Every structure is written in structure tokens, then in C-alpha cells.
Predict the 3D structure of the following.
Amino acid sequence: MKRLENKVAVITGGAGSIGAATARKFLDNGAKVVLVDLQEAALQQTVETLNSPHVSYVAADVTKSDDVQRYVNETVTRLGKIDIFFNNAGIEGVVKPITEYPEEMFDKVIAVNVKGVWLGCKYALPQMNDGGSLIITSSVAGVIGSPGTSAYNTSKHAVIGTMRSVALEAAPRKIRVNTVNPSAVDNRMMRSLEEGIGNGDGAGAKKALENTIPFGRYAQPDEIADMVVFLASDESKFVSGTVNLVDGASQA
């Protein structure tokens, strides 16, 4: 039997690199998957690329409670249950010192990365099957500080607090709640951050950032997805309330 046979999974940020890579691995392991993201065109393209009868999507804004309730309810209506919730949607903001950081951008980062995660937990948890798995994307930025990304770091620290509280609340139902904490991943988000960190010299910033990782490179989205699959599967059935670094020994 496949590791996620007959499981139903919801993935927010489903059109992004980590969301899409995780969806493919979930499908390969026997799950049915509902992708959630803001832009319907990006979701349609991702579904076409995945090319499976067991993947569908709901376009929704994770910062709006009505939208969150809708993607949860549509999943249950279509597929009857939720076993796995990958609470993954997030944005990076801009790279600026706190004295210059735009307040409206701070509010946006917190709305997506913190409120979106909180709302997802609030509305998905009651619909999840006992013994399920709820996985939240944090970051190495959730356990360390870095200059220029105060909003992002704040948000990724915050969701670890959310995870630890929800893990205790969900424990009587044997629902596991954990974070996955990637270091730099080779994707669009890092291209954006590299440009900000390097003041336009993205390639130089990338090389400098790679040099800070003992493995000497960025993670690939598939490598983050591998950890998510483990946390989603019954192989992690006694793992809850944990922070799971996928970082090439960056925090060793």
C-alpha cells in the first residue's frame, strides 16, 4: 500500500514551488489533493502540469475567513473528509531595514503568513479526521534573525507559536501538528529576496547565501516535500509539536 493511500490532502500555496512539489509526491503516494492559491490561472496551470484525476483546486484568499471556510467546505463536499492539511501559503515581503520597512507591507506579510495560517487551523481542524496531520510551513527564519527581513522573520517565528498551541489542542484527537522549516529554496521567492539582499545583484547574493549553507547549495522544492510527506504519513504518528529543519546543516 502507498504511504498516503486513500488520504485527502489540502495544500495552501498550492501553485508555488513547494506546494506543487508536495502535491506531486502526495499524488504519487496515493492521496487525493485539493490545491488552494490566490490566482486561478496559476492553479489551473499547476493542475495541468500534475496531470492527475485526483487533483483539483479552489481559488481563495487565505487572509479572508469566508474564503478559508469555502476551501475547507468544498474539499469536504467533493471528497468527504480531510486527513492532511499542509498550511503552506506565504509571501516574502521586501528587504529593508526596520526603520525603512513599509508598514503596509508588514501588514500584508503578517496577514498572509500568520493570519492565513491561523485561519486555516481554525477552520480546517474541526473538519479533519482524527489521527490526521496538520503541517505548517515556517522557515529557518522562524528560529533565527536576519537583517532586512523583520516582517518575514516575525511571521515565521509566530507560526511556530501557533503550531505549538494547536498541537496541544489537537492532541486528544491524535491529530499531529508540526512545522517544516526550510532554509533557502531554489525558487521564485529566493530570486525576489536575492535581488533585495544584493541591491540588484541577485547572482552575487545567491552565491553569498549558498556559502553560508554547509551543504554549499540551496534546497530543492522536492527536498522540502520529502519532509512534508513524512509528516503527513503514518510514519510520523507519534510526532507532534515539533520544528523540522530542512536546511543543509545551516543551524547545526
Observations:
- The chain has a mean pLDDT of 97.
- The chain is about 45% helix and 15% strand.
